[in-house]
Amino acid sequence: MDARKRIHVKACGCRVDAVTGALLQRCPACDMEEMARNGMPCVPPIGPHDALRFERTPDGPRVVLAHNLGKMEIKFDPRFARHSPSGFEWGYGGSGPAELARYLAYGVARYLGVHPSRWDQFDYQAVKWEFVARIPWHGGWYHASEIYEALGLSHYLNEPEW
Ligand SMILES: [Zn+2]
């Protein structure tokens, strides 16, 4: 059977294997729902070779993840706020930066296939101090390798880029 014909795209956008029914790729809406069921904000997987843009917009600070498949905003979800009800910040070591560092560490944990119940074992305070606090107020482009380094995971940086 043609491998492409085995992929069935559901109305919502989720891709499933037409034969086995196995989920191949979750659509953004179902992804968000699944993370919420785990009591976690929805954070895209952040790979060691991805790039991140931090920028100021009229609506506030914005974080965009760029990888081989395109760009995607990392969105703060107030339902799961832990440090800052108003969302992300960077450039110092406060609560907004802690919230952002938490999402960045979760994105790495997700990329590594770690179950959401164990995401908090990643030391996101280290990501705050070693990475987020050092981003200048106006933001800029950064390499995700800095998050891996802050988490003590720099061995993943040797992984080949595809
Ligand atoms: Zn879906």
In short:
With 162 residues, this protein is an alpha+beta fold. Helix content is 25%, strand content 20%.
Task: Give the arrangement of secondary structure elements.
Blueprint: E1 7-9, E2 15-17, E3 23-25, H1 28-37, E4 51-57, E5 60-67, E6 70-74, H2 95-111, H3 124-130, E7 140-143, H4 145-150
Helix pairs in contact: 2-3
The chain binds zinc ion (ZN).
Overall description:
- There is one protein chain.
- This protein is an alpha+beta fold.
- It folds into 2 domains: 31 residues, no CATH class; 108 residues, no CATH class.
- 25% of the residues lie in helices and 20% in strands.
- It is built from 4 helices and 7 strands; from the N terminus they run βββαβββααβα.
- A 4-stranded antiparallel beta sheet has the order 6-5-4-7. A 3-stranded antiparallel beta sheet has the order 1-2-3, with no helix packed on it.
- A hairpin with a 2-residue loop joins β4 and β5.
- The longest helix has 17 residues.
- It is globular and about 50 Å long.
- The structure holds zinc ion.
- Zinc ion binds next to α1.
- The site of zinc ion has 8 residues, from α1.
Query: Which spans have pLDDT < 50 for at least 5 consecutive residues?
Result: none
User: How would you spell out the order of helices and strands?
Assistant: EEEHEEEHHEH
Let me know the largest β-sheet.
4 strands, antiparallel
Broad shape: globular
Number of domains: 2
Largest sheet: spatial strand order: 6-5-4-7
Q: What is the beta-strand fraction?
A: 15-25%
